[in-house]
Specification:
Chain lengths: ~180, ~130
């Protein structure tokens, strides 16, 4: 049986995830060798480290498992651009068909997001927007509504399913309780 | 009336739900168990579904009030379609590191929910 390498990126909700720590555990007797990648501040190309390990372990098949949210795919872009392509036996483009698009989407979303705090005070001075959700597309408020679902459906229909930042114009920030990450 | 799921200790009201991306239906749907949770202010989906359903983020939330500085603590919301028992909702759900769905008050407050814990039964309807 050919051995495989399974890479799991540790879950992280930050869209700015990059390599912080790479933990190797290559078990030559197991079907899969597991490598846990902890993401944080980039220090060194993790694909280079990984490629060296794959060579030393003489693994025949590389299985890359990205078990995280969409923005985790930033990390997988490194796989494509790094030295791991030589070891791929799977079609990454098929496995992650939206990778390039995803990376682009994150950058776009963050740009739209940065607009909101800059214009929020201006929006608060205009009664039209207070208490409403606003949709920000290409740095501009393009629509608003009291109902976030109505608004999202309208702007996605108008501009396509592209990154659009939507947030509520309110003076006080809500305190919310998020559920436990267990379950 | 439906029965509580007794495989959970203690038993809990669990629904079979189908979740999809209303703006990109070609990526398919995910079927999963969902816990009815009136303590959750919004419905919650597993974080790993974001990439599976190719969802685009809407806005960030954090455990102690959103729009904080530390982005690592943030969770994002996404517009999803969720269906169960012949009912369908398009909602803003939050993705967190969980295995199953929590059906929160954003949905429950539009429905009639009867929890008969004594007999481990529940009923959820749109009156």
């Amino acid at each position: 049986m050919q051995k495989a390498l399974q890479v799991t990126l540790e879950k992280d909700t930050s869209p700015y995830t990059e390599l912080k720590q790479l933990q190797f555990k290559l078990d030559k007797t197991a079907e899969y060798a597991h490598i846990k990648v902890k993401l944080g501040v980039r220090e060194k190309s993790w694909t280079e480290l990984l490629a060296d390990s794959i060579r030393s372990a003489q693994l025949g098949v590389v299985k890359i498992v990205i078990d995280g949210p969409l923005h985790m795919s930033i990390g997988t872009l490194d796989i494509l651009s790094g030295g791991l392509a030589d070891f791929m036996s799977i079609d990454l483009a098929e496995t992650f068909p939206a990778l390039e698009e995803t990376h682009y989407d994150i950058e776009r979303f963050e740009r739209e997001r940065e607009t909101f705090p800059r214009i929020k005070n201006d929006l608060l001075e205009r009664e039209t927007y207070v208490g409403e959700f606003v949709a920000i597309h290409e740095g501009q408020v393009v629509d608003h509504d009291r109902d976030i679902i109505e608004l999202s459906q309208r702007v996605y229909a108008r501009y396509g399913y592209v990154p659009i930042y939507i947030d509520k114009v309110e003076r006080e920030e809500k305190v919310i309780e998020l559920p436990s990450p267990e379950g | 009336m439906d029965s509580y799921d007794s495989s959970i200790d203690p038993p809990a009201p669990i629904l079979d739900v189908t979740v999809s991306n209303p703006h990109n239906p070609t990526v398919g749907t995910i079927e999963e168990k969902a816990l009815i949770d009136s303590g959750a202010f919004k419905t919650v989906i597993p974080e790993e579904w974001v990439s599976r359903l190719r969802l685009l983020p809407v806005r960030p939330f954090s455990p102690k009030g959103y729009k904080i500085q530390k982005k690592k603590q943030e969770h994002y919301s996404y517009i999803v379609k969720i269906s169960f028992k012949g009912l369908t909702f398009v909602i803003e759900a939050i993705a967190v590191n969980r295995k199953n769905v929590l059906v929160g008050r954003d949905i429950l407050n539009d429905l009639k929910l009867i929890l008969d814990g004594k007999n481990l039964n529940f009923e959820i309807t749109d009156p």
